[in-house]
Amino acid sequence: VNEMGITSPLFLDENTSSGNFVGFGSGYDPLPEPDNDGIDVEAFALFIRSTKAPSRGAITDDVRLGQKQFDAIGCAVCHVSPIVTAAPGTLINAGALTVPYALGNKILRPFSDFLLHDIGTGDGIPIQPTPEFAETANKMRTAPLWGLRTRNRLMHDGLSFTKNDAIQRHAGQAAAVRDAFNALDDTGKAQLMSFLESL
């Protein structure tokens, strides 16, 4: 919750806004740190732990063939699976942190690279309103596809109501992949949709 500007016993320092101090005494924050006693942070952590992605649906022959189509036409370039975490003991964040044993060498299947891409649906809002982040204005982070079958609103803005609509909205860096999907025969498209329905 520190990213939202809420300090706690775990993170006593206010997060900055584009490098500007926004903590207590700045006019932005009327409360001394920490903002709460940590009870809300514990409740939030418990909530997040209970929102894991649902398990995969049935893996049928059509699902397997659909995943092959998904990979072959290039969807898996951005919607990556699997991702393996760094080995335990690996130094990260310029040596400030070490990957603990509990998080090392874990296999995740989010079907996302979590990177920013321009697929033609960006909102024009950069990550930070500074010149060095201007190029991010029309880029969106690749949405993970795990749990896709449980969603009825797709894309970052929730304006796609079917998987086909979402695919058709892929443009920019994803235009060639969209075109490859459109070039599939009806059987190939149905298999790819079966794969997506299994996520």
Structural account:
β2 (91-92) and β3 (97-98) form a beta hairpin. This protein has helices at residues 39-49, 61-73, 163-168, 175-183, 186-197; strands spanning 83-84, 91-92, 97-98, 107-108, 116-117, 140-141. It has two domains: 1-51, no CATH class; 61-197, Orthogonal Bundle (Cytochrome Bc1 Complex, Chain D, domain 2). The longest helix has 13 residues, at 61-73. The chain is globular and about 65 Å long. The chain is mainly α and 199 residues long. The mean pLDDT is 85. It has a two-stranded antiparallel sheet with strand order 1-4. The chain is built from five helices and six strands; from the N terminus they run ααββββββααα.
Describe the SSE topology.
Elements: H1 39-49, H2 61-73, E1 83-84, E2 91-92, E3 97-98, E4 107-108, E5 116-117, E6 140-141, H3 163-168, H4 175-183, H5 186-197
Antiparallel strand pairs: 1-4, 2-3, 5-6
Helix pairs in contact: 2-5
Name of the CATH first level of the largest domain: Mainly Alpha
Secondary structural class: mainly alpha
Give the proportion of residues in helices: 25-40%
Please report the distance between the alpha carbons of the first and last residues: 28 Å
The Rg value, from CA coordinates, equals: 21 Å
Tell me the CATH architecture of the largest domain: Orthogonal Bundle
Strand order of the largest sheet: 1-4
Q: How does the major sheet shape up?
A: 2 strands, antiparallel
Low-confidence parts lasting 5 or more residues at pLDDT below 50? none
If you consult CATH, what is the topology of the largest domain?
A: Cytochrome Bc1 Complex, Chain D, domain 2
How many helices in DSSP terms? Answer: 5
Strand content: 5-15%
Shape: globular
Could you give the count of β-strands? 6
Question: How many structural domains can be distinguished in the coordinates?
Answer: 2
